[in-house]
Amino acid sequence: MAKAAAQTMKKRYRFFKPREKKLNRSMAGNGLLFFIMAICGFFMALPLVMIINNCLKPLDEIFQYPPKILVRNPTLENFTDLFMVMNDSWVPFSRYILNTIIITGFGTVGHVILASLAAYPLAKHDFPGKKMLFSMVVLSMMFSWQVTQTPNYMIISWLGINNNYLALILPACQYGMGLYLMKQFMEQLPSSLMESARLDGASEYQIFWKIVMPNVKPAWLTLAIFQFQQMWGNTGAMFLRDEQLKPLQFALQQISAGGTARAGAAAAVTFVIAAVPILFFLICQSNVLETMTTSGMKE
Amino acid sequence: MASKEALAVAKKQGTLGYRIKQNRACYVMMAPYFILFFLFTVLPVLISIALSFTYFNMLEWPTFNGWNNYIKLFLEDDIFLISLKNTLIFAVVTGPVSYMLCLLFAWIINEFSSKIRTLLTLIFYAPSICGNAYMVWSLILSSDRYGYLNGILIKLGIINEQKLWMQDAKLILPCLIVVQLWLSLGTGFLSFIAGLQTVDKSMYEAAALDGVKNRWQELWYVTLPAMKPQLMFGAVMQITQSFAVADISIQLAGNPSVNYAGATVVTHLMDYGSTRFDMGYASAIATVLFLLMVGTNKLVQKVLGRVGE
Fold first, then answer.
1. Quick check: A50 contacting B, CB < 8 Å?
2. 3-state class of B144 per DSSP?
3. What is the mean pLDDT of each run of 10 residues along chain B (309 residues)?
4. Residue-number span of the structural domain to which B235 is assigned
5. How many CA atoms are closer than 13 Å to the CA of A187, on its beta-carbon side?
6. Same domain, yes or no: B8 and B126
7. How far is B303 from chain A (nearest CA, A)?
8. Which residues of chain B have a CB within 8 Å of the CB of A69?
């Protein structure tokens, strides 16, 4: 009875005050924090403002000196320019888009799944070699990637996956950061959660998919953001020789490398290159922030 | 008798082979990741460390030259010492400060209602997601009177003539530090935000009953201890980022920069690796930097172990 009453109370409360209630908050503190965020937010938003304004500038404003951040006569002609250049391309533009979907899609999903699968035993089981494997992953992030690029290239050649999507996808699946991130979040889960499922006869895989992953949703959504950004920014110029295999990023950067004659299209390209990860970010991040209200699985 | 048998069973369960067998599922789950990891990370790192003892110009087969690269690095290469000094200044200043900023902003954003939260996260993460976002700084720090910073300072009467922000050896490093701090709300920041979402809400209620009075106490006694794993993660990411600063220096100050005032270990490494094609020497630089980061990591992990005590 009391429980039901409490639930209706909760619902009514939500209806009137959609914001989640927080304890221990003072008005003065809220005001101060808002003030800080407004000032800092202005500086942090500068690149966004600049990219959006730049792509709307007509040519004469792009070349204006001294440069201005804000646009005065906004126009969309940069985008029509961009579409014209895209139609002229040697390989149909849809091919670049398909390549990007394959590379970015498999690279992101593959990494999130493989890293999470490996992170779960490291976080919640005890077995020989655990410490060594984990510290290897953490330490590997501290070695400069500029140097390992050359050996990496040799290994990819030995494996014979040069000039193949796999040359971009497979290395992307093993970045150390993803495993570390997932492991840290999984460590927070109470062991009793898994223990009770084990007593019910669930296998380790079932525990992983049905209990661990739903409970660390903020973690893998965040990881997906990082990985998508990484994959999207990859031109693949080092490994992919065939024009038919190259991703969108490569084609777009070629367009913006066109110099003065393509300055307008280049501004539009900068916008497109930034807009896609931002869109992905917004989708994932709003889900991350939503989990707060729904999480109740933990003790 | 029975105790003897039990002892035998216990002994058997304690053996390595038994424990490996017992955890077979774990190894199977980890296998795909770690096979790729060994191929594409461990092996290249080992090859690089081996190359650091050779002369290797990426055209001919590497020739062994012992400790020569390391000896040259510390005894003959003055620029390496400058870059090492700059990197240490960079790391000591930007490391802790941007770590704090990440945590502070993540926490403040978490105080807002959920609609505003996504927007604020985007705005603060914007410099990390907008590709070459620091180009906005080349407008701000432009060295003529049209540069925004010069323009404002001259208008306010603080300086009389324009300052050469990126050409004056004294100003380069401070300016780069500011830009780096501005850029630093990246990986650590997002993981802190995600970490704050996983803190159990009932803990706040319990803490309020236990006499936690304001949000600051709540932060220290409840929130931070609850997200220790994320704090550790953020620290490691911070170390890898602040010791490896290179891009902003090359983009804003050039490589080599005026009087090497903006040189960092990684710009020095890139100078040798991709400009002078001396991969052996570049690998030696990378190995030294690696050891430096590993040492710092040990220290930081110790400090973080004390949070919330």
1. yes
2. coil
3. 72 77 87 94 94 90 91 92 93 92 89 82 89 77 81 84 82 90 88 87 80 80 87 91 88 84 91 89 94 92 77
4. 77-304
5. 18
6. no
7. 18
8. 139
Q: What is the pTM of this model?
A: 0.88
Residues B298 and B156 in one domain: yes
Of A18, A45, A154, the CB nearest to B123: A45
Tell whether the model's pLDDT for residue A119 goes beyond 90: yes
B64 is a domain residue = no
Among candidates A74, A61, A69, which has minimal Cα distance to A42? A69
Pairing of strands B63-64, B54-55: antiparallel
- Asked if B170 and A160 count as a contact pair (C-beta separation under 8 A), the reply is no
Kindly report the CATH number assigned to the domain that includes residue A271. 1.10.3720.10
Which domain does A243 fall in, by range?
Answer: 86-294
Domain total in chain B: 2
What's the pLDDT at A208?
92
How high is the ipTM of this complex? 0.89
- Identify from B37, B193, B294 which residue to disrupt to test chain A contact, counting A C-beta atoms within 10 A and taking the largest count: B37
Q: Which residues neighbour B35 within 8 Å (Cβ) at sequence distance 6 or greater?
A: none
- Tell me whether residue B57 is in a domain: no
